[in-house]
Automatic annotation (TrEMBL):
Ranges where the Zinc finger CGNR domain occurs: 129-172
Pfam family membership, one: ABATE
Source species, domain of life: Bacteria
Gene3D superfamilies: Jann2411-like domain
Protein name from the UniProt record: Zinc finger CGNR domain-containing protein
SUPFAM superfamilies recorded: Jann2411-like
Length: 181
């Protein structure tokens, strides 16, 4: 089983910003995604409303993960807060440890189980390492495994290189040293 950070990362990455490709394009896609990760049962079917909640949760998480780059205080994005408010959970003491359990069943329960991974990732120390690529055209979620937690891009070879090349060109242009086209 994957850990909470991996599950959250995979959920955020169901939408590829750069390619404008949505893995959760329909309620059926959402049902399959949740079922494959053990968040819902075989007979659970998503509705259009469930899909809308999932999209708000996903994009709210993406916005929250952008803030993990600077380590500053966190004020939840409105979209994430609204999505979380619609996913009722309760605190239980399963096995002596406090955990969040969904109050609802079906797809709403599966989305609540997914949302419960946020405090679980915080508790195991992986939340602050969960980030989205600083490249505005990418926004791919990743887990920062660097020693000092300073990674900014999903890939230094692709997104890091793009960003640094643009900055270099902008500096050269500002200095007047850019080659004429």
């Amino acid at each position: 089983m994957t850990g909470p950070a991996e599950l959250l990362r995979d959920f955020v990455n169901t939408y590829d910003v750069e390619g404008d490709a949505d893995e959760l394009a329909s309620p059926a896609d959402l049902s399959v995604w949740l079922r494959e990760r053990g968040l819902t049962g075989d007979g659970d079917r998503a509705s259009d409303e469930d899909l809308a909640v999932a999209a708000h949760l996903r994009e709210g998480l993406r916005a929250a993960l952008r803030r993990n780059h600077d380590g500053g205080p966190y004020d939840g994005p409105e979209g994430l807060e609204a999505a979380l408010a619609g996913l009722p959970v309760r605190v239980t003491l399963s096995g002596g440890a406090p955990t969040l359990e969904p109050v609802a069943s079906g797809v709403a329960g599966g989305l609540a189980r997914l949302a419960a991974q946020i405090p679980a990732a915080h508790a195991d120390g992986t939340w602050s390492r969960l980030k989205v690529c600083a490249e505005s055209t990418c926004q791919w979620a990743f887990i920062d495994s660097s020693k000092n937690r300073s990674r900014s891009w999903c890939s230094m070879r692709v997104c890091g290189n793009r960003t640094k090349t643009r900055a270099y060109r902008a500096r050269r242009q500002a200095d007047g040293t850019a080659r004429p086209s």
